[in-house]
Design brief:
This protein has about 170 residues and is α+β, with helices and mostly antiparallel strands. The protein has two domains: about 45 residues; about 90 residues. About 50% of the residues lie in helices and about 20% in strands. It is built from five helices and six strands, in the order βββββααβααα. A hairpin with a 5-residue loop joins strand 2 and strand 3. Helix 1 packs across helix 2, helix 1 packs across helix 4 and helix 4 runs antiparallel to helix 5. The chain is extended, with a radius of gyration of 22 Å. It starts with 10 loop residues before the first strand and ends in a 6-residue tail after the last helix.
Length: about 170
């Protein structure tokens, strides 16, 4: 493993841990030349997954491309890099488990949107506007209205659950 600072090929492993839910090994290394510490990851090499694009072309699935799209949508939002990385992990798991050799790009985009929606609704709208190629303001409005309706539905369900707990927990020993 080459040092990130001095490019030396000599390093020692300082710490090894399981990462990404057991799908990778994280190693902290120390350069024997300059003492710089850096992190490497080992992953199981999988068969390359092809992404079928809208225009009919295909390209190899690139995790970094998914991460970049999510990070762009989350710019200046209260979403940490760790949350973005976990989201990318979940999306990658979904598409690699459900796919054969080739997966439509639409499946990846929908998976990202499903994962973004509960994490940050503004980031979800940003991502959806690019992914769905919004051209008119009413398309934004429809997406926002959908989120509002869902939020109201979730609030009603929470209130009903809380009410049921209060009713069930009141003792009822009249």
């Amino acid at each position: 493993m080459r040092c990130t600072r001095c490019d030396s090929g000599s390093s020692k492993v300082v710490d090894t841990r399981s990462a990404r839910g057991g799908r990778a090994v994280r190693r902290r290394r120390e350069c024997l030349g300059c003492g710089e510490r850096f992190t490497t990851y080992e992953h199981i090499e999988k068969r390359p997954l092809q992404v079928a694009k809208r225009d009919g072309s295909a390209e190899v699935f690139r995790r970094d491309k998914v991460r970049a799209g999510i990070a762009a949508a989350c710019t200046k939002r209260p979403v940490s890099p760790a949350e973005i990385e976990a989201l990318v992990d979940r999306v990658e798991d979904r598409v690699t488990q459900s796919a054969g050799v080739e997966i439509p790009s639409s499946v990846i985009g929908e998976a990202v949107m499903e994962e973004l929606k509960p994490l940050d609704r503004v980031a979800y709208i940003r991502y959806a506007s690019v992914y769905r190629n919004f051209q008119r303001i009413d398309e934004f409005q429809e997406a926002v209205d959908e989120l509002i309706v869902r939020e109201q539905r979730e609030a009603r369900a929470r209130a009903q659950r809380e009410f049921a707990l209060e009713e069930g927990g009141s003792g009822g020993g009249d």
